[in-house]
UniProtKB/TrEMBL annotation:
NCBIfam families: egtD_ergothio. Transmembrane segments: none annotated. Keywords: Methyltransferase, Transferase. This is Dimethylhistidine N-methyltransferase. It holds the Pfam family Methyltransf_33. One of its GO terms (molecular function) is methyltransferase activity. One of its GO terms (biological process) is methylation. Residues 23-318 form the Histidine-specific methyltransferase SAM-dependent domain. The keyword Hydrolase does not apply.
Length: 320
């Protein structure tokens, strides 16, 4: 009864602000111009991403949730003993809820770059699962992970759902998976969700939802630059562009300048031609075999792969 207690431990690596300015400037100087998708996730961006997950066209979230729900008991059996459940890029922590009752982990360690969003999500998990220890960490998981806040007893299960791995190009993905392999330790495992190659029409629709939520998510990056970096720019002079690049096996998202214009950030100016783009995200898609091979190169051994009947999405379980 009474006031709910804060039961989480919160570790803050203070990622970001310094990097945001520097990375935006250097990305805009490159050709093609680019900005890392990790900068989508301010508070508003995290909310918009959740809204994307609820759109009709964005099948990955729904499909993966179904896979997790259906196979939770089997996943628990594969792990076999009580584990530390580590989730890089945990966002709203919705998906882990599908595993907690079956897994009964000793502790849950969500990490995310979006500080307040992470804090609220971690508190809600702690309130809903009073038996669970929660160690939340605000970090940029694309930087090398060492987890100083992490208890070091117990088998580690790294949970990396949502096809977040798709944001890395395959070379970076291998480096990142090797990093996870180190974090997993001697007895560790990896449960990872990977979006699959499929009919481009399905992919194109998923990143161009009819309500315009994905467009708002992409354009929010410009609002953020305008606000946080005091930039002189008008987000309305850019438009969202997303398409499946079949040669590269990835969906690309861009912000396209609707006309010739000059942006000012700090003392720098950036001239854009009409139709010039900023590449803001790549989302790589993998066949089961391609992904098993990639994880294998990073040291993981495939134990199980689950897919939905339409072969939209895959859930892989690896041991170290
Ligand atoms: C969070 C990287 C998996 O690539 O599908 C959704 C992000 N971008 N719609 C994805 C995203 C546009 C998402 N990931």
């Amino acid at each position: 009864s009474g006031i709910p207690q804060t039961r989480i431990r919160f570790y803050d690596e203070h990622p970001l602000m310094a990097d945001f300015f520097g990375e935006v400037l250097s990305g805009l100087q490159q050709r093609p111009r680019c900005i890392s998708p990790k900068f989508f996730y301010d508070e508003r961006g995290s909310e918009l991403f959740d809204a994307i997950c609820r759109t009709e066209e964005y099948y990955p979230t729904r499909t993966e949730q179904q896979l997790l729900q259906t196979h939770a008991a089997e996943i628990a059996e594969l792990i076999g003993e009580q584990c530390l459940l580590i989730e890089p890029g945990s966002g709203n922590s919705d998906k882990v809820r599908l595993l907690l009752d079956q897994l009964q982990p000793a502790a849950y360690l969500p990490m995310d770059i979006s500080r307040d969003f992470l804090f609220q999500a971690a508190e809600q998990v702690a309130n809903d699962y009073p038996w669970l220890d929660v160690y939340a960490a605000c970090v940029d998981f694309t930087a090398p992970l060492n987890l100083p806040w992490c208890p070091d007893d117990g088998r580690r299960l790294i949970f990396f759902p949502g096809s977040s791995i798709g944001n890395f190009d395959p070379g970076q993905a291998e480096v990142f998976l090797r990093n996870l392999h180190n974090v997993a330790g001697d007895q560790g495992s990896l449960l990872i969700g990977v979006d699959m190659k499929k009919d481009p029409a399905i992919l194109n629709a998923a990143y161009n939802d009819s309500e315009g939520v994905t467009a708002a998510f992409n354009l929010n990056l410009l609002h953020r630059i305008q606000r946080e970096l005091n930039a002189e720019l008008d987000p309305a002079l850019f438009r969202h562009h997303a398409f499946y690049n079949e040669d590269q096996g990835r969906v690309e998202m861009h912000l396209i300048s609707q006309r010739a214009q000059t942006l000012k950030i700090g003392d720098q100016q950036f001239h854009f031609d009409k139709d010039e783009s900023i590449h803001t995200e790549s989302s790589y898609k993998y066949t089961v075999e391609e992904f098993t091979d990639l994880a294998g190169r990073a040291g993981f051994t495939s134990r199980q792969v689950w897919t939905d009947p339409d072969q939209l999405f895959s859930l892989h379980y690896f041991d170290v």
